Amino acid sequence: MSPKPLALFVKHDGQSARAALTCEYKCGNACFHEPPNTSEGAYFGDIVSGLNRRGLIKGGAAAVLAVGAASALAACGDDSEAAKTPAPTPAGTPGTGTAFTAVAPNKEDALTIPEGYDQQVVIRWGDPLFADAPAFDFDKQTAAAQLKQFGYNNDFAALMPIEGQANSYLLVVNHEYTTGPMMFRGYNKDAPTDEQIAITKAAHGMAVVEVKGEAGSGKLTPVFGKYNRRITADTEFLLTGPAAGSAFTVTGADPSGKKVLGT
Hints:
263 residues
């Protein structure tokens, strides 16, 4: 029997991040401004809004629907209600690719996945990456502890097989940014403590985690493998290539122009 497809998620502390905090702490609300269209051309959104579905297909723009192209084009070329409704996945049948019944809109405060799929939390913010890492304590965080624990928030994630080791993988995760109000009680964004700053620096960067795959189910379990490591805002990197050591890379902190910190 084929295993159910596994939906892989990496979460932080179980709290629901609010969009406003995400925008503020990820990019400083960089996109919160009037669209700076100073040309005489129309906005792309205005152009698209004037097209109907058939017109879009006839114009060739359907090329962007590369994933599941055959079924997508068939559905887009037919305005009938039957074409708009995906075929249901038979109960107990593993989902395949994009051929699944969509989750109905709901207001449940829960992760809801399609029929035929499983979900699993592989690792969380603060989980230990090394045997000597302390257990996570939300009210007793330290930078030293965070350096040995899984970092905060996640952007890019990759799962790569370890050559020569069956069912062994490296989970590589980019810890894009931190969200102070959700990391600390009574956090003051205008006056964070030195320790809070040190903890957030240690929570940035990347994590490399060795995981074992369970045959038949796809379940992943983190282990204290030899490849485990944390890359933080203070991790030193060596620049190589034609630009290394040039006037473009020399700084007051590094006159050699061959070192950078963090990612």
